[in-house]
UniProtKB/TrEMBL annotation:
Organism: Cryptobacterium curtum (strain ATCC 700683 / DSM 15641 / CCUG 43107 / 12-3)
Protein's recorded name: Signal recognition particle receptor FtsY
Record-stated family: Belongs to the GTP-binding SRP family. FtsY subfamily.
Gene of this entry: ftsY
Positions of GTP binding: 105-112, 187-191, 250-253
Main location per the UniProt record: membrane
Amino acid sequence: MFESVKQGMSRTRQMFTERMNVLLDRGPAVDEEFWEGLEEALILADVGAPAALDIVEALRVEATRHALPDAYAVMDALADQIASSFTTEGQGLFEENPVLVLFVGINGAGKTTTVGKIAAHSKAHGRSVLLGSADTFRAAAIEQLEEWARRSQVEIVERERGSDPASVCYDTIERAEALGSDLVLIDTAGRLHTSDDLMRELQKVVSVVRRRAAMPVRTVLVIDATTGQNGLSQARAFDKALDLDGLIVTKLDGTAKGGIALAISHELSLPIVKVGVGEQLDDLQEFDAHDFAAALIGAEAVYETDGEARDSATENLASSNLVSQAPSEPEPEPEPEPERVTQAAESFATAAPDTTYAEEPKPQEGRFRRLFKWRGRKREDDAR
């Protein structure tokens, strides 16, 4: 899963790592220039000024509290700090049973496709799914959702084009109660967040659903990541009008502005429930804050979970833009027997001066420190 997110975030990661490479080329000093450069790199990744400022300030405190010696040690802590900036409460709303989910957003964000993918995935995992096609305005919207229903082998409630979307939602709820469906997904028409009239119409639809449904109702905003900071404006307007429960961020694979996911979650305290990193069915994935943070900054997904190490990606130094010319990290040699430790050390000391040895990273060191040690070794080798 991490590899898919990592690949999908390649454009965003490239922009961030290019900025950080320039910043770190000047040296490892943790000074005001470093902090300003880090904040600027985060903002340019569309993380947003408020989130970037909070992340940098938290890292400043951590650097002082733990006496972090250099910029590389700060970078070790960056992924965890980014991950902790996301809102996670309410992230499992699709796991509720039963639950009705309304999908809202502007035109072209990918709502209908997202509904279809979730329906197919949920049906494959044993859920009783019902679709409602309340997008009665867009040409071919009903037909598109019909095709997803056919592929997923789930029932769909629909009316002719131009019908009142609130009535479609009402019919969907009645049908769900008759069938005993435990997951109801309703697609709504795209609404321009700057149009008061359209937003009032959507408020009516959501209000009808919340009053009529006996099961929990969740309203999820689908955001196109390519819109960048405009996506934050959309989220503010929709949240103000509808009191959103979560976000789905699509098209992360087509933009260098993937940090917008953090900007919205951080400012509005909304959980991101899924992210889209491609067109295939499996490319709509559960959101994992640590994986997203690692993919954003070019680190590996190696973290501590419940006291045990969790490694969700193959160790591959050459895959990171931060060390694009570095050699692959060698497999660690078997630990020598105790009586041979001294002999091995003497052998190492008497080796030819031009022999290159790959140091095995110390267990307590983070991924970034390991990466930059290789980078430094590469420079030393080039200088010889």
